[in-house]
Sequence to fold (257 residues):
Amino acid sequence: MSEKQLALVASTTPQAQAAAEELMRRRDFVPIEEAEMAIALGGDGFLLQALHAMLDRHRILPVFGMNLGTVGFLMNEWRLDDLDTRIDRARKFTVTPLRMEATDVDGQTYSIPAINEVSLLRETRQTAWLEVTVNGRVVIPELVCDGVLVATPAGSTAYNFSAQGPILPLDSAMLALTPISPFRPRRWRGAILPERTRIAFRVLDPSKRPVSAVADQHEVRDVATIEVAIDRTSPLHLLFDPEHALDDRVTMEQFVI
Fold:
């Protein structure tokens, strides 16, 4: 067993901070710029923040998360002992994020990664009116809804599932396109698309019916056009205890009632 150079990042919650102090009393950690991998203490939301910070710094490390949050779907069990042994035995799962390219009504452009999903949401009580395009072909000329989202397999159990979207197996190489409270077309409930698909949206009435675009936790308000596609230039690596069986957990979520 080798002792790797580890960085430690922790949520600001009292539980995560106390756990970080305990770990630092037991072993040495290095700055993230010098590390081979990172330990993340918190919940799923904090893990997403940590991964986004790596993407922003262009310093992407494998991450072993331990749950000190609520659900912790993407986290391992918190245990103080045998950290280096667990890391040596860990299984690696690769997450390929989305890339959202958005232009607002003033012509400002934004390029933001999304690990879970990109969602378009109405900003006022007025429903959103959206044109939906897949690989350059208009598939829905007018989608009237509260919003719509594009989810990765890793994010399909999150907001997408709450919006009645499908759970995607982690190795499915698919994306979920899921409407949020659709009004027209009444019978459209979404689509499952190959991950190579490019999906675009145009806001049809941005002045009266403004729409925001959210890539995970990053929001752009008053958007006019949005394009979403898989970004293969920035794969992310999550580490799991062998008994964690993330793929099994994703599958079994379909039977939770």
